[in-house]
Amino acid sequence: MAIDDLRREYLLTKLHRSDLADNPIEQFQLWLQQAIEFDLNDPTAMVLSTVDKDHCPSQRIVLLKDVSDKGFVFYTNSQSNKAQQITENPNVSLHFPWHKMDRQISIKGTAEKLGIKETLAYFTKRPRESQIAAWASQQSRPIKSRDLLIQQFEKMKARFAKGEVPLPDFWSGYRVKPLSIEFWQGGAHRLHDRFVYTKNETGWTIERLMP
Predict the structure, then answer these.
(1) Is the pLDDT of residue 13 over 90?
(2) Per the annotation, does 184 bind a ligand?
(3) Which end of the chain has fewer CB atoms surrounding its CB within 10 Å, N or C?
(4) Catalytic annotation on 190?
(5) Which of 141, 159, 190, 208 is catalytic?
């Protein structure tokens, strides 16, 4: 079958203005809980988009680790490409592609680095192997083979064989402070329901967008 013949209708449900919470974080938390109950694969996986110094966009999937009125939190190597691009340009976007629910959430905002206290609190909760992997990987840098990566992992594993694994000084959390959040619900005949919350001085405005 030709790829331009691949299509389906989005018929699961509709989204009405009356369905929406006044606060987009509350609405996000509701949809996230529904995604978890729907048994969606990796419901906290989100596409993070950044822009490099040459104004070229980059995308990758990271995992949401906290959400509150302060924003959306993820963690990464602070020497990685994404972290360096955030340092140069903090304007980012997040995207949750929940295809099985005919839903998408798109977020625009600014990213800021978390403090050591908050980063450490999460790092200590990670599985020990993940903590060691953070030390073993110079994220985004070239490496000749996977064998070399495993060797580096084993080296770090031996280094921290006794006691707790310390927080690397090159590993940190980032919080995306939202400026707009769009909720998309697929609709029949491509007449999708789209609502965008936009931040203002007193709170949030809500508008329906054409599909």
Answers:
(1) yes
(2) yes
(3) N
(4) yes
(5) 190
